[in-house]
Design a protein that fits this description.
- This protein is an alpha/beta fold.
- It has one domain: TIM Barrel (Alpha-Beta Barrel).
- It has 10 helices and 8 strands.
- Helix 4 links the parallel strand 3 and strand 4.
- The N and C termini lie far apart (about 50 Å).
- The mean pLDDT is about 95.
Length: about 220
């Protein structure tokens, strides 16, 4: 899939992140595939998923573009840290590979731009998950196809917010030419709408849709 086709399919729409880690109740490829199907039936325009097994199961279940990633570890650069991880995601059926675009050291010593080049040579597209404007500028310079606000709040040099980083979104839209995808702590339809109004090409929502334990916890906190 070329970038223009991908953008035409997701523009102005909701991409649902269907992820569950090994210690979470909904962990399992069959469950994630069914979650993706429910998202498709609800009107989602794309799916974001973690790991080759989940990506493959979802690819076989829904007719939507898949943004795949490969989490390896829990600190530093762990979102698709190497080209090897990216290749596994592409072979599982994802059209787009999401990877850490923060510029932090990668475990194999590679650099972001080299992984982007490798993914393009393999026929995939790249979504750079970043946390600051400078990282977004660098990701665009490295030829990322889209840039996402995914990691704002998850790095030491980005604001620690409980709400979406709309300031970063606005800055990226103003300074970059590549499409921007809003992602991170988008809990309500109103926040998703605001992200589009600020210039996001599409919006990724995960926990507010696909993690019942987080949804339950927010209700419980409100009742207290």
């Amino acid at each position: 899939m070329d970038r223009q086709t991908f953008l035409e399919q997701v523009r102005g729409g909701l991409i649902v992140s269907c992820q569950a880690l090994a210690d979470e109740p909904l962990h399992g490829t069959d469950i994630m595939a069914r979650m993706a199907l429910a998202a498709q039936q609800g009107g989602a325009v794309g799916i974001r998923a973690n790991g080759p097994a989940d990506v493959k199961a979802i690819r076989q279940t829904v007719a939507l573009p898949v943004i795949g990633l490969y989490k390896d570890g829990s600190s530093g650069v762990y979102i698709t840290p190497t080209l090897r991880h990216a290749q596994a995601i592409l072979e599982a059926g994802a059209e787009v590979v999401a990877l850490d675009g923060t510029g932090r050291p990668r475990p194999d010593g590679s650099v972001f731009a080299d992984i982007v080049k490798g993914i393009h040579q393999l026929g995939g597209l790249v979504m750079a998950d970043i946390s600051t404007l400078d990282e977004g500028v660098a990701a665009e310079a490295a030829d990322a196809d889209v840039v996402g606000t995914t990691l704002s709040g998850y790095t030491p040099n980005s604001p620690q917010l409980e709400t979406p980083d709309f300031a970063l979104l606005k800055a990226l839209v103003s300074h970059l030419h590549v499409p921007i995808i809003a992602e991170g702590r988008i809990h309500t339809p109103e926040q998703a709408r605001q992200a589009l109004d600020l210039g996001a090409t599409a919006v990724v929502v995960g926990g507010a849709i696909t993690r019942p334990q987080q949804i339950t916890a927010r209700f419980v906190a409100a009742l207290k």
